[in-house]
Design a protein that fits this description.
Layout lengths: L3 E5 L3 E7 L2 E9 L3 H14 L5 E8 L5 E5 L9 H10 L5 E8 L6 H19 L2 E5 L1 E9 L3 H11 L2 E6 L3 E9 L3 H9 L5 E7 L3
């Protein structure tokens, strides 16, 4: 598995209109299923007068957790086209919601599929797509006398210090790109008296 993935930096919006119907689209960077649930709940509340609030999302660097929802539209005409736009850009940790206001004219399954696809595409087109690394965190504990050795390893491996506290017994939480984790771990293991725990943190 690659240790990089593509997502969006900030929320963005789009719109598509067809035969009186309006399709308002919203793209969000998300990390967990809870993030997704809260945003969908909020949009269903904010757009309570809309006919449909459809969505699709993709989560995780490996792009294995996903869902597409038609919210009452004919099966496969809303959620799948939205998901298709996420997939065509190879994005993850992304939620796209499309809110439909019915204009009085039926669009047919082909028209609906096009409308949801174009609305989702517009929101993602407005978004800034970024590449992020899959990082691994390590928590280390050591005596203060080992500080110079620890700092040398951090400098040599380009690890990042997320948290730290210093006393007679010192604590640090380190983050490093997944491909460099083995190098960091091997160097830490050579420091006698240091205790560390490895924990993958790849949902960020």
């Amino acid at each position: 598995m690659s240790d990089t993935y593509k997502t969006i930096l900030t929320p963005s919006e789009g719109i598509y209109k067809e035969k009186g119907s309006k399709f308002l689209s919203f793209a969000f960077p998300v990390i967990t299923g809870e993030d997704v649930k809260e945003l969908i709940k909020t949009h269903k509340k904010d757009f309570y007068d809309a006919r449909h609030v459809c969505f699709a999302y993709m989560l995780g660097p490996d792009r294995k957790e996903w869902r597409a929802n038609d919210d009452g539209e004919p099966s496969g005409t809303a959620g799948r086209p939205i998901l298709g736009q996420i997939n065509s850009r190879e994005l993850t940790n992304v939620l796209v919601i499309v809110v439909r206001y019915f204009g009085g004219v039926l669009l047919g399954t082909g028209g609906l599929t096009t409308a949801y696809k174009e609305a989702a595409a517009d929101a993602l087109h407005q978004a800034e797509i970024i590449e992020k690394t899959v990082d691994v965190t390590s928590t280390i504990n050591f005596d203060y006398v080992l500080m110079n050795d620890v700092m040398r390893v951090i400098k040599d491996t380009n690890a990042h210090i997320l948290q730290q506290s210093f006393d007679n017994q010192c604590f640090m939480q380190l983050s490093i790109r997944k491909q460099d984790a083995n190098l960091l771990n091997s160097k830490l293991e050579k420091i006698s008296g240091l205790v560390f725990e490895k924990e993958e943190s790849d949902k960020q």
